[in-house]
Amino acid sequence: MHTIADTESLNPVERAVVELAAANRGAFEVSSRSDTKGPAIRGGKKKLFKPDDLAYARRCCDAIPRLIELQLVRHASGKNGYELTNFGWQLSRKLSQQSRAASLAGSSMSIDVTQPITSANTPQQEERPNATLNLAPGESLLDQLEERVAEETADAQPTPGNQSLSIRPGELAREILGESGGDQPPQGGATLNLSSEAPSSDNASLSFRPGESARDLLRESDAELPPRDGATLNLSSEDDVFDQLQQKVDAATAEADASPNMTVAPPPKPAAPAVGADSAPTWRTSKSKDADLLSSLGLNEGFRPEEPRTLEETGLSIAFIDDLVLKVVQNAGSISGREIAEHVCLPLAVLEDRFAEMRKRRTITPTASAMLGDHVYQLTDEGRQRAAAAMRECAYAGVAPVPLDDYVDSVQAQTIRTEKPKRPQLEKAFSDINVEPEMLAQLGPAISAGKGMFIYGPPGNGKTTVAQRITKCFGQNILVPHAIVEDGQIIKFFDPSCHEPVQSKAGSLLKASEHDRRWVRIRRPTVVVGGELTMDSLELKHDHLSHVSEASLQLKSNCGSLLIDDFGRQRVNPTELLNRWIIPLENRIDYLGLANGKKIEVPFEQLIIFSTNLDPTDLADDAFLRRIPFKIEVGAPSRDEFIKLFGIFAKKLKVDCPQESLDYLLATHYDSCDRPFRRCQARDLLDQVAHYCEYNELEPTAVPEILDHAVNNYFTVMADE
Predict the structure, then answer these.
(1) pLDDT tens column, 310-327
(2) Which is an annotated GO molecular function term of this record (predicted)?
């Protein structure tokens, strides 16, 4: 597990970035405004900028790549948006604890709310430290809590210490804060009840251990100890505490179903809110239940682009959108506006203004009414001329593409190098095949490193099978675009032969949470290419009739694995192929040429695997082998492993293989002629036995006579002339 054991490993600039992000609910952005005279990191109303040190803002921006490498920060929505990872939140908590420890010399102020709560009209004694919050229906509790603590803090002398909000065991947070208005003093237990946005949604109860910091608990929702009575909620006097608390309350609510310290109970049916000062307050979380559920399902991790709300947010020009719509209508003959939006995967609200403008220009015309105020459109004569001209220029009429810059950002956010699979992931990925522990011990560090590797050894021992299982070690799914556009050139990216879409039950939730449908969720790809590989396969393929390009093999394999099978047997010279990849392997960047001659820079972020029967030193020089740091030999199986494989495949193929038949096979066809064992032979020989018995209507049993027949068919014997 990734951990940050020593916060001193970060320099002051990196610490400042993490602390600013934590103060702004974990998010920040890099923007250039006049008050900073250039790019600077901003989080809410705060910014990392020093008027007397103009280079400070640049140093903070330059710290972001290292924080991403340390898995403390990742890309968020927007081109220049970032957010803390779970590890980043853990580190920010450690930094906060260090800050509190350094301020122990100062005094602290305590707000005690353990006394009975009086109504809002009851006069308050000036010296009484109790805090009563009266909330109107729908009013944010955290905002009121922040105002009250701010008032208490303003009356007291500022101190570097903490403020603590103590809750008695068993006491309900709502009752303490004045929702129930009861006069009886609270009794036993400690529970923080949070209701979600929808009145019919379930409540989430968070249980705390005695004296435990709520901030610590909310950030460490995977605590193993069962909840116990008692709770202390420690709030620092910094302005960001409420944002941090809200951030973690949202995260804890999303994991309420899975965490042992959280329970979900249905709330009583809500009554209609009364009007007046005595109306019951409503505790609302800042996120909807759908967003919380997506978080609990792990679907909001990493890169998830939001649905564009305006034409500008699509990154596409008006002329491009108009031509795309005209081509879609031309191909369909007549089609409704909603069907056009579904076809190009853009919101109808974004396209409606374009439909109206195109009607004014008389390129499309409505021919019938559709549901919900929509229309069915056809092309006019002028529209058909425009569509024909657009089709000659580019025949693409599919899903609206995404800009190249957005795709580059997505690869950086979803790179395979950030996952770092461990032993349990490897064992799960290889569970359906027989792999010796020694082999897993070699493969583990190579896979976790996310760098290239050579897998070599005699044929028939499972090199290709092992290589194809490697991508399964990386559990997360990724998002890839249907198509990319750069300088007016379309590159078709999504390829069903390489990309396996994920049919998730959360599809409706993704749609409700404004997921950009121009991106498709797939399993991390494993692109396999063998002897058919040519140098042209590594470049964009341009169709001179449709004027549409297709992504190269290495582009399609980004965020996954690229397996070069039978390396050294391609029609292209191995040295020429290796030279093509020396720079991409070194810099993680590749350069591809568009049809108009422009060179574009694209990521080279995949685990590249060379599988060969030859010795790597016979195929490549030291300069290239240095860039492929892991060389793993898949040797022949031992006698015991070969016998074990026979048992595995006999069960899988439903063939009875008695021990005496196996002993006969080994003595007659292996020991007598010193034939080497190969892992594929157990499967292949038993497969021949199964087909022989099926054809001759015999019981599927591997008797010596049938094994002789299988061996004679399978092995080729070259007699001397």
Answers:
(1) 999 999 999 999 999 999
(2) ATP binding
